[in-house]
């Protein structure tokens, strides 16, 4: 597990939103990091600030092809997959392959290196949930042939494959079911609700609330998400374990909050709701609290302010004031 006494972590999808924060945090903690990405939805710009660090390596690789990477790896974090609905609807086959072939290749690598494998699964495995809040023992309500199924079923398969490697081959695995995360490095055009509302508010465009906006989400600041992934990696928990905020709010309330913090007077407009859009979503995070000692720390207003300030900085604008 060590190269020159330092643990090496492989982060697949490391040039994406969550992956880049994970790479940074692992590097901050003194680990050697290999970031493998095919840049389908991520960008080298997200990790460019890490390239000069000793022990950090960026490798262009498609996880759906067999991998031959220098380790030895102590940890394999498997994040490679489109994650935004706009991206996975645009890349349906690639998304299914990242979840199936990609997960298989990442698991095989972890097995070969005797590494601990952490799967970035998703709250989408619960589909449009019929139980509330969602506990890990809920099996979900997924439409297997709907447009979102390319993502949901890929992740359900990835979880199943991960469990098969553990049961049949003794691979050391942990499954994180990540709920909506947000923060700096989200792309303004990736279509997810937080970056979309922020971009629209900063551009003075109407905020596009889907349906009547009463559907709920519980959004978690990316630093907390990354802390949850690390806690899982360092534990012996197989899971699955929910990693997300339990501070739930409606999409309409989120739009109003973004308007308030940005000081924007953009109107809200109501647009069609996507097919199979889940009506509500809130994790039960008891398992993470009890087994990992983890819970989110960053309050929504603070996380949104940091994210808005990132978007403003990208446009050369000063940060918003501390007080809203
Ligand atoms: P992202 O799109 O920003 O990052 C995904 C990264 O994976 C990108 O850099 C992309 O180029 C890379 N990738 C995709 N296919 C690949 C392939 N075949 N080979 C190599 N690299 C590939 O998305 P994100 O929000 O950072 O999500 C990261 C992971 O976390 C995903 O697995 C996603 O399913 C999971 N997740 C994210 C959220 C969230 O709210 N952001 C919620 C639940 C689960
Ligand atoms: N949404 C919205 N306006 C947008 C983008 C998304 O109202 O411009 C809604 C979307 O319909 C869903 C919620 O916000 O109800 C979260 O969507 P997102 O795509 O961020 O993630 P999901 O949780 O659906 O994967």
TrEMBL record:
Cofactor(s) of this protein: NAD(+)
Keyword Lyase: yes
Keywords: Decarboxylase, Lyase, NAD
A matching Pfam family: Epimerase
CDD domains documented for this protein: UGD_SDR_e (cd05230)
InterPro entries documented for this protein: Epimerase_deHydtase, NAD(P)-bd_dom_sf, UXS-like
The protein's name in its UniProt record: SDR family oxidoreductase
Naturally occurring in which organism (per UniProt): Thermobifida alba
